[in-house]
Amino acid sequence: MQSRTPGTSGTPAPRPGRPRSAAADAAILAATRQALVELGWSKLSMGDVASRAGVAKTTLYRRWTGKNELVVDAVAELFDELRLPDRGSLTADIEGVVLQFAAILARPEARSGLMAVVAESTRDDALRERIRDSIVDRQKRLVLEGRSRAQSRGELPPESDPAESARTVDLIFDVVAGAVVHRTLVSAEPADEVWVRDFTRLLLGGLPAAATP
Amino acid sequence: MQSRTPGTSGTPAPRPGRPRSAAADAAILAATRQALVELGWSKLSMGDVASRAGVAKTTLYRRWTGKNELVVDAVAELFDELRLPDRGSLTADIEGVVLQFAAILARPEARSGLMAVVAESTRDDALRERIRDSIVDRQKRLVLEGRSRAQSRGELPPESDPAESARTVDLIFDVVAGAVVHRTLVSAEPADEVWVRDFTRLLLGGLPAAATP
Amino acid sequence: MQSRTPGTSGTPAPRPGRPRSAAADAAILAATRQALVELGWSKLSMGDVASRAGVAKTTLYRRWTGKNELVVDAVAELFDELRLPDRGSLTADIEGVVLQFAAILARPEARSGLMAVVAESTRDDALRERIRDSIVDRQKRLVLEGRSRAQSRGELPPESDPAESARTVDLIFDVVAGAVVHRTLVSAEPADEVWVRDFTRLLLGGLPAAATP
Amino acid sequence: MQSRTPGTSGTPAPRPGRPRSAAADAAILAATRQALVELGWSKLSMGDVASRAGVAKTTLYRRWTGKNELVVDAVAELFDELRLPDRGSLTADIEGVVLQFAAILARPEARSGLMAVVAESTRDDALRERIRDSIVDRQKRLVLEGRSRAQSRGELPPESDPAESARTVDLIFDVVAGAVVHRTLVSAEPADEVWVRDFTRLLLGGLPAAATP
DNA sequence: GGTTAACCGAGACGGTACGTCCGGTCTTAAG
DNA sequence: CTTAAGACCGGACGTACCGTCTCGGTTAACC
């Protein structure tokens, strides 16, 4: 939820003059998601979002530099709902979180927005950075959390080489996120329980081999 | 490479009037790729492509309904370069084709265009169909070819259940394509030989488990 | 009815090859007038006229250089209907022909077309020439005929100075044509019998003064 | 000079938001006249006028509904220069104002524009109304002023019947305006002093007869 | 009775302008 | 200094015609 004047995390540092409306931020992001549902990314316009939010266009541009940044923030909030459930086994935990991920990608505001900003980010490094910070890296916590939980259950051995370990986390993340996105958006087939079961088998079956240096 | 009036595969059935210029098609698709490289998808405009190709805007609209369809055809040609190399083993074959795939995704005309049209396709069924026909399904041949070659080498058992087999092909395709795309475009890390080796280990290691019903 | 290859008035000078369809000419001019009625000059398009006439666009351009020339020919035929009636007195004759002229200008194909080509002719000398030859000068016969008839009746004296006489004919023509057109198209009031009676009084009352050198 | 939102004559009633630029109006009308001179009505384009005026196309369309309305306003300003000179006699006054009128019609921006909008007005009642209000009726003041001045000089009797009088004013206006326009644009001969002298003789000679009921 | 040359329909072609929409910026008055 | 409102410049959109061209095929007059 970074804005043009990035959120000074600590004290608000009260500037002179009229302070910005806090309600406006929420209204704008909600309006953006609504517009994504109804229109999709390419037909979503700043003016339309502004009038949906009951706000002037200038108010948008004071907070975000453009459509891309706005959509990143609007979509990022969706992925913060992801939780790693404790279902008792690594297999079940993975299946649970993948199903949650698939459920989010089934929502039109996520489908429309996510791929569009990724596409834009191929030519805009600042945007890619923002996507990484706001969306991608924030969800790596799930992989880390899942691994440590499996280790405490004894399903996985404690990692030895930290560099090796980081590489494996990244690989898993690319495989999970990539496969679900591809299944959902490109193949346009549902990532349902059957598919998730098969996929999880593949992933867990391959893990030991991948972890070998 | 479908146009607005899809190619009647058999006899050309010479319609009355001046026939469409074949040279124009090639010039337009090349100009589109060039524009993708220089400008990216969102700043690519039909007028610009037309003038690069030395063609009138109407000539574009006579052949494609819009920017999305045009870009799909322009990008599709890139992926037809993919070949399954014969490197002697299943592992090596997979590594080879994945590296080729990664090399295509490293080209800016593919990066820019591919994700954008996928994003648009989330709200346009005809476009998704076109992407599937022109790009995705056409490359599944690689998976099929690789499997039959491995079977003839004795690396894989002949499939028994055809439905089960089709499901596995789809799964592999989603995993391979998804992981490489995610690594390349979202994580923005190179899918180099090291990564491909790790990924291939994961995939081949998990295959037996995934193939179990 | 001049065409691009202007009508060699005498012998048709039979060129080799297939001769032009005579029926097409009539159909095109009729279609032009119909289009003028329904669409007006500015929304009339060559393609539309062609399809109304059941003819290809090339056939139009083979005969006329453009829209303006075509419309001039189509409108010119309307004014050839004008006849000088013999109502027994100069006053009555003038009133009769002025009413006929007003009736033609009340038809939408004449209103729309005439002023438009005159407007265009302000920047196109060839077009002005064509208008003069096809429309304007051809109707001066009415003034000449009216005068000689009045002279034979003894209502007007025979002219003495030929130059002076020509100047008067031109003046009368400008006054009559100009006044009726202005009344009809600019003031947008009908040039009815009452108005024509008043106008004719003014004209005939002023004639002796104007004819004095 | 009416705009899309006609000038509320009284208080400006300050609407919210940025007010319209007054300078833009003048620049646009001047650019329109310049374009009429260089290109004529049919080759004048809104985009060209906009760029000449240093203004966006949207700014034109915010103020005028189309080319016709814009040209009417641009041309109307030309005719507001007309003044009734006091040359001591009715004859001389008329000759003076007719020469002025002819001088305006000799300017290419007037020739091109005036007839074109009159032609268009044959199919557009709102446009005809606009022409009447902005150009035609505004100049009838000249006829009225000339008559009252002639009456005060004793050259004309005071009018008795007001309806009769109004009809005569309209008739004179149609004759004067029509004849000068026809002489200038259709006959394409100059309305010079000789012609104006002859025409004025005709007009004044006929007036007594026309004024008789 | 074949040759031949101009005709004809259809429709694609390179252009130009259209009138609209949107992106971002700016200028107001109000808070 | 922020806000709502809305005008501003610029650029792209997709469409409509322009006048030209390139086809396959027809039609009359000459040989």
Quaternary structure type: homotetramer
> Which CATH-level-2 architecture of the domain at 75-211 in chain A?
Orthogonal Bundle
Largest interface (CB within 8 Å) is between:
A-B, 52 and 52 residues
Shape annotation of chain A: elongated
Query: What structural class do the secondary elements of chain A suggest?
Result: mainly alpha
Alpha plus pi helix count of chain A: 9
| CATH class label of the domain at 75-211 in chain A | Mainly Alpha
Residue-averaged pLDDT of chain A: 90
Please give the radius of gyration of chain A in angstroms. 20 Å
Query: What distance separates the N and C termini of chain A?
Result: 39 Å
According to CATH, what is the topology of the domain at 75-211 in chain A?
Tetracycline Repressor, domain 2
CATH superfamily of the domain at 75-211 in chain A: Tetracycline Repressor, domain 2
Poorly predicted runs of chain A: 5-11
List how many beta strands of chain A DSSP finds: 0
Spell the H/E element sequence of chain A: HHHHHHHHH
Strand content of chain A: under 5%
Q: Share of helix among residues of chain A?
A: 55-70%
Q: Can you summarize the main beta sheet of chain A?
A: none
Protein name (chains A, B, C, D): TetR/AcrR family transcriptional regulator
Keywords (chains A, B, C, D): DNA-binding, Transcription, Transcription regulation
GO molecular function, one term (chains A, B, C, D): transcription cis-regulatory region binding
Organism (chains A, B, C, D): Streptomyces roseirectus
